[in-house]
Amino acid sequence: MKISAIIPAGGTSSRFGGKNKLLEKIFDKEVIKYTVDAFCASFVDEIVICANPSIIDVLKEIFSDYSKVKIIAGGASRQESVFNGLKICDCDYVLIHDGARPMVSTEIINRAIEMVKETKALTVATKTVDTIKEVENGKIIKTIDRAKLYNTQTPQAFDYSLIFEAHKKLSGQNFTDDAGMLEKLGYDVYILDGSYKNIKITTQNDIEIAKVYLK
After folding, report:
1. Rama region for 186: left / alpha / beta (φ>0; ψ in -120 to 50; rest)
2. Is residue 113 within 8 Å of 48, Cβ to Cβ?
3. pLDDT, tens digit, for every residue of 129-142?
4. What share of the chain is helix, strand, coil (3-state, %, to 5)?
5. CA torsion angle for 22, 25, 27, 33 (degrees, to 10)?
6. Measured CA distances, 146 to 6, 128, 132, 138 (Å)
7. pLDDT tens for each residue of 106-126
């Protein structure tokens, strides 16, 4: 049984201040290297990074001695990047994880691998702890019951054939969440409780938060 991981890394980091956040260093180690190292220590057999063409050469240098890692060109959208990765995978199950989530733990990755064998589709998520308001034109319309609300994270894990067929059927659209593609097609997707530390690096402020967690 073979397990692959796809790490989409094709974004432009437009909200990060003119440089690619995945190459930002925290304690002399790139953000994406923290991410990849967590997967290298897991039960995953191969890791496919779907990268922005502008950083492919840099990534090849960073991961030159990583036997599990393949680096390919990503697409114009996250969905297209993941599809590019799926096309070259030869596996039974696949995990998809944001390159900009360096605090992911090897433990949660391995738990996702074990759980997906039973559920076929899952997403790591955390229960929503804030009170959520629905707003229209600057005015609160209602308060939403948070008891059933979760914040979606990654990794998300799938039976390979299931998610590959979903990508083929929904090709050309702009899903930012692979689990959402299966939901759209009527498949069940399950929740694996994650960690509130598993944040996504989006702004410079997130780097400061990451430093606290990674210290």
Report:
1. left
2. no
3. 999 999 999 999 99
4. 35, 25, 35
5. 40
6. 31, 6, 7, 21
7. 999 999 999 999 999 999 999
What is the pLDDT, as a whole number, of residue 19?
77
d(CA 187, CA 116): 14
Whole-prediction pTM:
0.94
Contact indicator for 24, 30 with CB cutoff of 8 Å: yes
CB half-sphere exposure, 160, CA atoms < 13 A: 16
Predicted pLDDT at 11: 66
* Ranges under pLDDT 50 in the chain: none
List of E strands, the chain? 3-9, 25-26, 29-30, 46-51, 69-73, 93-96, 121-127, 132-136, 139-144, 150-159, 190-193
